[in-house]
Amino acid sequence: MSGVVCRAASIALTGLEGTTVMVESAVSQQLPGIAIIGLPDASLAEAKLRVRTATAQAGLPLSDRFITVNLAPASLPKHGSGFDLAIALAALAASRHLPASGLGDVAHLGELALDGVLRRPAGLLSSVAAARARGFLRVMVPEACAAEAALVPGIEVIAVPDLASAVAWYRGAQDRGRIVRAEAPAALQAEPAAPGAGVDIADVVGQPEAVEALVIAAAGRHHVSLLGPPGAGKTLLATRLPTLLPELDDEAALEASSIASLGGSPLLRLVRRPPFESPHHTASAASIIGGGQGIEVRPGAITRACHGVLFLDEAPEFPRTVLDALRQPLETGTIEIHRSRIRTVLPARVQLVLAANPCPCGNAGSPDTAVSCTCTPRVRVGYRHRISGPLADRIDLRLTLHRVSKVLIDDPGERRTPSAELRERVVGARALAAERWAGTPWSVNAEVPGSWLRCPRMRLPRSDTAVLDHALARGALTLRGYDRVLRVAWTVSDLAGSERPRRAEVAQALMLRGGDLA
Predict the structure, then answer these.
(1) Which residues contact 395 (CB under 8 A, 6 or more apart)?
(2) Cα separation of 27 and 2, whole Å?
(3) Which residues have a Cβ under 8 Å from the Cβ of 251 and sit 6 or more positions away?
(4) How far from chain centre, in Å, is Cα 482?
(5) What is the percent of the chain where pLDDT is above 70?
(6) I want to staple 491 with a disulfide (CB 3.0 to 4.6 A). Which of 220, 366, 372, 394 is the partner?
(7) What pLDDT sits at residue 191?
(8) For the chain, which ranges sit under pLDDT 50?
(9) Longest dimension (CA), the chain
(10) Helices (DSSP H) in 207-274: which residue ranges?
């Protein structure tokens, strides 16, 4: 005679997307044993050994009959050890060690040690956020990572140190666990406001035009390319860009933190500073775009840099397939991962920065005859063309840098503005943009569709866009490039505190794109 089916809830992650999994357990008249069905991976299938040992160590032995554990929906592939707590509680309920009522109303997340102690599963913050999105009001997690789970507002966290305490909680001994509630969003723990790492835009010697261009890029979240010889300051400028960016708002901080939690390291506070990723040029497409093995999805650099900066140094040295794989996510702000058994969408709202030498030797265009270029014209052209036209068309600001002279280095009168001061300008410009785009899905100028900028309500006078219209008419710009110049012009206008871009702002935006005003 079969026993009653007992159910405990958990969350299955596919990327950042969570699905409610109901762990069903029932006892049947067979030889003692336990089986887990419902498309588990290897680490999840091994849970039966962890659960049986941990329950025995806790003085709660499972039934001496056969226990079947089903992970519903059975058609969804599942992976990881985060289901251990739910499997153990469902099996113990089927073995009549605790009441089954209430197990399905709480999302259970935790890995079991053999002695019954609960450990943090990978992606805990993402799972808690997914549980809230799925309508759960409570989540049970290991006590060691309760502070991380409490970073998600709007859900009650039950923190228990081990399996015995979790069972005691459901038996009514609620002193064996503790309730942790998230604070109001404004009071959530966050990283210090300082950009960190002791870097500052004031470290850049010379290059005032490039610094101002980075301010424009930061204010509108525009993509940037830096072209120049070795030692011109391309990497220095790119690594200082995050210091100009404002802190992430609550929604963006929670998403960035959820992405960071997938890496396996616990979080003590929300990620408030925009992330910065700089993969090596030997990186594969999967490491940049995202991938994983089997049914597990791992975010790539473009997702880890979400709401921040993705810097590709020595961009022409990256494989062409890797660079071209960026084209679609740069337009949509998302990246779709397709595998034979799974499909998921990961966020990819990044600010791309490319840095490149003008040629393989790096000296093309140098005014110093002592270091003249040794590359043939064909080699120089081929090197530039490693960055495809469609990808280059998605770059808003194209900056050409030159080496700083010794006279400028020794100039004591040069004033270098610190990042904090420039960041105030960026914050003010973004506030103007957010006010203008209130009530729309966009908050920064780079997100606004060209059709919106060209609609009757937002269209600029023909006299102000004449230079831009002329460039489009003679084929110097694509329509995508036209729209991107308009977005940059709006950002330049926001930095100046103007109501809208004028002819001067449009011309400046076109020049920053590398356009010809003739």
Answers:
(1) 223, 224, 225, 352, 354, 513
(2) 6
(3) none
(4) 28
(5) 93
(6) 220
(7) 47
(8) 1, 184-196, 516-518
(9) 93
(10) 208-220, 234-240, 250-261
Element (H, E) at 7: strand 6-14
Give the residue from 114, 147, 216 showing the smallest Cα distance to 444: 216
Which residue stretches of 21-123 are H helix?
42-45, 47-57, 84-94
Structural tokens at position 176: 């064996």
Helix (H, G, I), strand (E, B) or coil at 229: coil
E strands within 120-241? 138-142, 156-160, 178-181, 224-227
Q: What is residue 162's three-state secondary structure?
A: strand
* Torsion angle of C-alpha atoms 419, 425, 426, 431, degrees rounded to 10: 150
SS3 category, 9: strand
Contacts with 383 (C-beta within 8 Å, 6 or more apart), sequence order: 316, 357, 358, 359, 360, 375
* Nearest-angstrom CA–CA distance, 195 and 465: 37
Look at residue 115 in the predicted model and tell me its pLDDT: 95
Read out DSSP for 79-100? -SSTTHHHHHHHHHHHTTSS--
Tokens of 465: 């866009």
Q: Return the pLDDT at 96.
A: 92
Whether 124 contacts 85, CB under 8 Å = no
Q: What is the DSSP string of 358-403?
A: SSSSS-TT-S-GGG---S-HHHHHHHHTTS-HHHHTT-SEEEE--P
C-beta of residue 87 within 8 angstroms of C-beta of residue 57: no
How does the average pLDDT of the chain come out, rounded?
A: 90
Q: What pLDDT score was predicted for residue 257? A: 95
Length of the chain: 518
Rounded distance between C-alpha atoms, residue 448 and residue 486, angstroms: 10
